[in-house]
Amino acid sequence: MNIFLPTNILRLLIMTVLCIVYALFQAFAFSWLVSFSYLTLFFDAFFNAIFVVLSSVFLNKAIRFGNYVALGFFQRLINYTALGILTLGIWIGLGLLGSYLILGKENITELRWMIPMKVFIGILLYIPILQFIHNRIENEEVDEFEDAIPIDENNTESAIEILDRVVVKTGQKIHVINVADIVYIQADGDYVQLITDQNHFLKEETMKYFEINLPSTTFVRIHRSYIVNVEKILRIELYEKKNQILTLTNGHKIKASAAGYRLLREVLNL
């Protein structure tokens, strides 16, 4: 990707303005606590703002890679708390290192006075940033459903072959999995996990491929990370405000998004 695209330049300008605004407010807040000049505090706060941006990038990657959005409420709460402690630790540590380099060793005592306020500011920033990333990832799933590849039923040459089995190679072994035995499919980076009642298999394939090639009357994309076999659903329960939790025959529980649940209701004629 060309980093000099206009959209990226605009994004860089917006982030720079936000960093400057943040630095102005933080410098003002600390000017009442320490004896440093406002300009010195501004540069210190500006570097802190850069660390906030980098921490936000780290949060976005961690939440996406860990698929935290698909977790249950309590597990998600635990993970986000642990992630917050790690993120704040890194941010505060880098911020103090920057302050040490900018303000000097001789001002170490006053630097210590700044720590509680920086921790407080970090907590205040972490919560809205986390909420923004979480909501953005959740909303992306709607786009994935809207981007489904249309099938031209009148064109026999482009007809899609519906799968009745999936072949997975593990080391020197080749597993042949009947589609009817699959409980659900879960996204896993560039791979997918094929979950059966007793086992799970890792296959290098996309969720879109299985969404298109599995029987649409049996398999439904209920979430950006899940495709479920409707014949393996034991129970559907309300989860939070607009999502549903599915209990499956193997005991696993997976979340259906609002868009995914609408598709599921159509298949189940609810």
Task: Give a short synopsis of this structure.
This protein is α+β, with helices and mostly antiparallel strands and 270 residues long. It is built from 6 helices and 10 strands, in the order H-H-H-H-E-E-E-E-E-H-E-E-E-E-E-H.
Structure, described:
The protein has 270 residues and is α+β, with helices and mostly antiparallel strands. It folds into two domains: 6-146, no CATH class; 158-268, Beta Barrel (OB fold (Dihydrolipoamide Acetyltransferase, E2P)), CATH 2.40.50.1020. The chain has six helices and ten strands, in the order ααααβββββαβββββα. Strand 8 and strand 9 (243-248) form a beta hairpin. Helix 2 (38-66) packs parallel to helix 4. Residues 1-6 and 145-158 have low confidence and may be disordered.
Rg over C-alpha atoms, rounded to the nearest angstrom: 25 Å
Low-confidence stretches: 1-6, 145-158
Shape: elongated
User: Order of SSEs, N→C?
Assistant: HHHHEEEEEHEEEEEH
The main sheet comes to: 5 strands, antiparallel
Separate helix tally:
6
The oligomerization state is single chain
Strand content is: 15-25%
Approximate helicity band = 40-55%
What is the spatial order of strands in the main beta sheet?
5-4-3-7-6
> What is the end-to-end distance?
44 Å
Structural class: alpha+beta
Number of strands: 10
Number of domains: 2
Tell me, rounded to a whole number, the average pLDDT. Answer: 79
